[in-house]
Amino acid sequence: MATVSLDNIKKRFGPTEVIQGVSLDVADGEFIVIVGPSGCGKSTLLRMVAGLETITEGELRIGDRRANDLEPMDRDIAMVFQNYALYPHMSVAQNMGYGLKIAGLPKAEIATKVADAAKLLQLTELLDRKPRQLSGGQRQRVAMGRAIVRAPSVFLFDEPLSNLDAKLRVQMRLEIRELQAKLGITSLYVTHDQVEAMTMADRMIVMNAGRAEQIGTPLDVYERPATLFAAQFIGSPSMNVLEVEGRDGALWLGDMRLPNPTGHIGPVMLGLRPEHLTPDPEGAIVMQVLLAEPLGANTLLHGKLATGQGFTASLPGVHALSHGGETLRLSISPANMHLFDTATGARLG
Amino acid sequence: MAREITGMVERRGFGLWLTHLVMIAGVLVIFFPIWLAFVASTVTQPEIVRPPMPLWPGDQLIENYTAALFAGVNVPVLTMLGNSLIMAVGIAVGKIIISLTSAFAIVYFRFPGRNMFFWLIFLTLMLPVEVRIVPTYEVIAGFGMLNSYQGLIFPLIASATATFLFRQFFLTIPDELAEAAHVDGASPMQFFWDILLPMSRTNIAALFVILFIYGWNQYLWPLLITTDPSMNTIVMGIRQMFPSGDDVADWPVIMATSILAMIPPVVVVISMQKLFIRGLVDSEK
Amino acid sequence: MEKRVTFKGWLLPLCLIAPQVFISAVFFFYPAGQAVWQSLFIPDPFGLSSQFVGLGNFEYLLGDPYYRASFLTTAVFSTLVTLASMIPALFLAVMADRLVKSAGTYRTLLIWPYAVAPAIAGVLWMFMFNTRVGVVSWYLGQLGYDWNHVLNGTEAMGLVVAASAWGRISYNFLFFFAALQAVPRSIIEAAAIDGARFWRRFFTIVLPLLSPTTFFLLVVNIVYAFFETFGVIHTITAGGPQQSTTILVYKVFSDGFVSQDLGSSAAQSVILLLVVGLLTVLQFKYIEKRVHY
Description:
The complex is a heterotrimer. Chain A is of the alpha+beta class. Chain A has helices at about 40-50, 90-100, 105-120, 135-150, 165-185, 195-200, 220-225, 230-235; strands at about 5-15, 15-25, 30-35, 55-60, 65, 75-80, 155-160, 185-190, 205-210, 210-215, 240-245, 250-255, 255-260, 265-270, 280, 285-295, 300-305, 310-315, 325-330, 335-340, 345-349. Helix content of chain A is about 25%, strand content about 35%. The radius of gyration of chain A is 24 Å and the shape is elongated. By secondary structure, chain B is mainly α. Chain B has 16 helices and no strands. Classes of the chains: A alpha+beta, B mainly alpha, C mainly alpha.
């Protein structure tokens, strides 16, 4: 059990700064998800915490120790890798016990710890198998087991579910979260999947181009995205972003007049989540529907506005649509309108 | 329909038998020189020197092979077999060890001079021993390694092929595996022993087969540096069994020796056919 | 392709790479350097001193009719060995490929001559064609052909080519067979539906698909003929008669060790180095090509 704190952590490869100063305080037992598109630096950040990459600048503390220069094994962490990284020639039990063997624990003790972890993960039957004899989900569990037996202070997960099929991913997501809650071990979890981030995180870090765009609870990020990037990255389907202009106490999108919740004057970026739009015969937003995707519980309508911009709305239930490019009027509550600075992308109001 | 296509592609009936016939003929032609050597190793000297020699084995097998193994011409063939074994195993094991460690260093570390060493090793790909025999001979002579196992083995150990093979293989191992070991607290050498070596088992075995044959079949090098018959290897020793001048060669013993010289590498190839083919194909990539 | 840096430190990797570097330096680079150095000198007959002659040894060599003849001999020899080992191998591989069930058995029967050392192959073939006791030469005599490779240069060349190509057929067979097995059945079947008969299919579809393997084997067999056939020649003809089978590698040996002409032998080594370099470049062109597939 431990806290982890990152203080203005930076990473440079030659002249390029791939992590541009990330600060974060992780509470004991907290589950932090680092989410972002590929190449945003999220894995690098995790690998710096693991000790697999050196930290160029800033301070990393695990528990009450400065960890910048500690070897991975001395950081009291365990890591679950994207491709599981199981040793192919070792049995499940040997894979799980390898770290303990290196640490010089007596055989009997290793066996007990491995058996306990295996029981927790329902791997007892599989202990003598080789990794190639296991299914994807089972391998994933073994990788978890290897992390658990060492009873570390911190779990590090590097996209652990990305090699699994969709159904298994949902199941493993729950299992990991349950297990983490049961063991109460501080965890850092890297993913590019915003659904994983939303469902698993106590708090998430949305990363983009080496910067933390926002750090907060999933609902925080969803309801009050701090930047345009965070707004567009979290939420599915992603947020509509329109360039509008504030004048005369309203926001203007071409001829369309929308309320102006902040009273901002001049050009501004307006973000509207598709699921916050409601059909309204009086609505200000006029959309020409080109394609409907019925998902059962709701229907995604794709089309364009009079200004020519693409636009998506998500309406509950089944929405009948004649395929002739029908026009739909929509409105949105001012509370669900997100305004961002045109130049910096920072949230306004 | 599918069956008809198979019929077109695979021969049946007469065509099939013709193909078999061609294959059998091919095998027999390839086989013939060895058959003849075997026959010659089972008959008496007079039967050979009065041509044509018989084409079916005689009854002198045990006598000839005993004579070869324990008496030989210059030195008992048993001694030469032992020398060949030491040389072949020495070359195979030596090459595998130094290639494994240097490939490990090149792939898993960044250290000063890494690129230079890599190219130095790479260059040795281009230098078969046949090309630089005189100076290499002088080096060995300078070390006093003539007529020694070290002299037989060392100059043939340092080829880059094996290093490249292992490097190639190590590069296919996911980075995460080394990182997992690192997180598990393994030191570089523990990773090497516990993970890299066991994972390379098949590659090592395949390479061993290829290198064993390479070492066993060396001719020019042992010819140069083993002037003492008791250090002769069997492959080069056979040539020494022919008398100089007009004396008649002891054909049954020489042919028995030839057969004995073939047996170890042939047994290795046949018994480890899969590994052998894999090693061959891999090492030529 | 590079790995992420996993392990730190420089002393350990240097120790790990040291044995190979040391052996390469002592037994490769030093002798190769010596060869280049010696090629610039002519030692006096007693080996006590030597005189710097610059490129004199090379000039002498290139003007030497024997050396030029040896070049020609090597060219003829390696071409013949390459053809004599590749064509039968390809033919047998095509036949074996048609026999789906028993192909493995034939492969086992065909591969093991690869394990026979070139020097042993030389002894076996010399025995078959021996002028006094050889079975084949005796039967040829019965047919009215007087075989004598000890006196006849052409026959000597034929014999060393046959003995060199013999074990090599196995090797080439293996590669051709593997390449044939890798040709997708669907392509063959498509050609069959298009109405192409077996040999037509072979020449228009299969052979072009085999071209990377063929090119690779071409280079490898030339290298083999150049450098690894010493044993065959030494056991059968010792370069004779009248140097008609003295290939370049054999000449390095006979000038260096038999005639003790060190300057000339060293210069020949240097020329061979260049040849090897050229062949290696060819080989790498091939590897590059394969990488792009």
